[in-house]
Amino acid sequence: MTRSARTRTRRARARARALPAALAGLLIALGAAGEARACKPWSPDSTNVVGPIVPGAELAIIGRYLALRCDEGDAPHPGWRPPPLRCALEARFEVRNEGPPIAGRGLVVVSGDDVEVREGGARIDAPASAEEREGWVTDAVLGAGRAYPRADESVRTFPVTLAPGASAVWTIHAEVVLEQGVNGCAEPPIFARHPERFVGDSFTRLIISPLANDDALLEVELDLPRAYGADPEWSSSVERPVRRTRAGRGRRRQRYRLRESGIHDVVSISRDVTFVRGGPIVAAGVDLGAGPRPRLRAGWELATLRRWWIQSLAVESDLKALTLVPTSEVATRVHMALLPSLGVGLGLPIRVYPEARAGVRTQLSLGWRWVSVIGALDVYPLRGREDELRGAIMVQVGL
Predict the structure, then answer these.
(1) Are residues 161 and 256 in the same domain?
(2) Distance (Å, whole) CA 234 – CA 239
(3) Which among 346, 395, 370 has a CA at the least distance from the CA of 24?
(4) Listing from the earlier edge strand, what are the strands of the sheet with 251-258?
(5) What is the DSSP track for 188-214?
(6) Is the model's pTM score more than 0.85?
(7) Is 349 strand, coil or helix?
(8) Final residue before a domain boundary, out of 228, 248, 271
(9) Are 25 and 144 part of one and the same domain?
(10) DSSP code of 84?
């Protein structure tokens, strides 16, 4: 080989070694952006606060306030799941009539128990009729887009009498139980790979109001057990930075103030975890080294950093060599069955049999829930000789 050819070969190998770091940096940025901009529709099994609705009225919301004070339930929960959160909810709306006089009935929907609507300290609500449940809510909120309301949602009506330009303050009280679950149209990859083992991501999503409220101020105050935190998923920007204070031993308070909010303003509450424990993985495929041979893989994986940075430790064999492979991978969310999760990983393959040798791995993956296709390229530097390259394609299953 000529000197120029050797130079080109060294440059190509240098670029190949730099590629994993560049890909990892790019995917970390994409993962963080996807975390902030993930598609978040109204989840049908979430906790909702919808209203007040006054059909046919021209109401503007002047100000809104939402408060949740939560405690963990006492009943044990099966599996690895924490107990549900039992919360006292208060939602307050200040409204103004910007149309003709109103003399009718309003309506609120809450997926909770002991729902009350108060005005001036006096309770004014009554149970909704079957016609109001099936007609008013569907027409006023979502048209024909949802079978609504659900069996676990309380629908209450209340009298509304407002002159043109008059204002009113309505306060909704309820007791809600926030069960764990993953909301939105995308799942973190660790949950998709091990759906039966996860510790819940988002516990609830609260919709504040469907009324026109372009300039309505929204204040949210949360009083949670210390192990929990909340993430705003607002369609608007936060007016001022989030304030987080601890209120007494074992409690955490978070407060938000926002403007220019809309119908899909929600808040997700989750338990703070350093690691998501994931689960076992097994894989089988083809080794693309010197002559195709079977490649087998088994190990365990867990996740950190918002559940998209995945760490794994696996043992691999091509029936002639035994290799221990720790790998660090970043992966995008799983959006639906047909759109895979894309992952890029860096690993340290350590061959323990028949001879000890360490290398560097670049790993790419495409995942459809618990099934992933993995492509791996291992580079083993050899002093005084060309590097040894070993590749493999495997199908991996999360258990």
Answers:
(1) yes
(2) 11
(3) 346
(4) 122-123, 113-119, 167-178, 85-97, 59-72, 217-225, 251-258, 243-245
(5) -HHHHHSTTTPPPSB--------S--T
(6) no
(7) coil
(8) 271
(9) no
(10) P
Write down the residue that tokens 């670029």 correspond to.
Answer: 15
Domain final residue pick, 236, 255, 271: 271
Give the list of residues 6+ apart from residue 165 with CB closer than 8 angstroms, or none: 96, 97, 98
Length of the chain, please? Answer: 399
**Contact assessment for residue 396 and residue 279, using Cβ atoms and an 8 Å cutoff:** no
Locate 353 and state its tokens. 């049999």
Could you tell me which of 50, 4, 17, 130 has the C-alpha nearest to residue 359?
17
In 10 A of CB 7, how many CB atoms?
A: 10
Q: Residue 8 in 3-state DSSP?
A: helix
- pLDDT per residue as tens, the chain (399 positions): 565 555 555 555 555 555 555 555 554 454 444 444 444 444 445 677 777 888 778 888 888 888 889 888 765 555 455 677 889 999 898 989 998 999 988 888 888 889 999 998 899 988 887 777 665 554 444 443 344 555 557 888 899 999 999 999 999 999 988 766 655 566 778 877 887 665 444 556 666 665 655 566 778 888 888 878 776 655 444 444 444 554 556 788 878 777 655 555 667 777 766 777 788 999 999 988 767 789 999 999 988 866 778 999 999 998 888 999 999 999 988 766 567 889 999 999 999 988 888 999 999 999 888 899 999 999 988 776 777 888 899 999 988
Instruction: Please report, as a single letter, which amino acid is at residue 336.
Output: M
CATH number (domain holding residue 151):
2.60.40
In angstroms, the Cα distances linking 204 to 190, 192, 274 are 20, 19, 20
Asked if the peptide bond before residue 149 counts as cis, ω within 30 degrees of 0, the response is yes
Query: Which residue's entry shows tokens 């360490």?
Result: 358
- Using DSSP's 3-state secondary structure scheme, residue 37 falls into helix
| Domain that includes residue 98, residue range | 49-271
Residue 43 forms part of a structural domain: no
DSSP character string of 45-76:
TS--EEEEE-TT--EEEEEEEEEEEEEE-SS-
Count CB neighbours of 136 within 10 A: 21
Q: How far apart are CA 188 and CA 303, in angstroms?
A: 10
